Amino acid sequence: MNTTNPPVAVIGAGPIGLITALGLVAHGVPVVVFEAACYLSGETRAGTVLTRTLEVLDRYDALGPVLEASLRLDEIGELDRATGTSTGSVLTSALAGETRFPFVVNVPQHELEPALASVLEQRAPGALRMRHRLVDFTQHADHVVLRLSTPDGEVEVEVAYVLGCDGGRSTVRERLGVEVTGHTLEQRYVLVDLVCDLDVGNPRDYPYLAYFGDREEWMVLVRQPHCWRFVFPLAAGREAPSSDELRDKARHFIGEVDELKVLGSNVYTVHHRVASSWRRDRVFLLGDAAHLITPMWALGLNTGVLDASNLPWRLAWVHRGWAGAELLEGYEAEQRPVAVHGSGAMAEAARAVMDRRLESVAGWSDAMTRTLLGVRLGEDWSITRPPGPLRVGDRVPDLRIFGLRGPVHLHELCREEFVALHLTDARRRPHLPDGPAGLRQVIVSRWDAPHDSGLRSRAYFDPGSTVRDRFGLGDAVVLLRPDAHVAHVEPWTASSWQNVQDRYLQEVRLAR
Question: Is the pLDDT confidence value at 512 over 60?
Answer without folding.
Answer: no
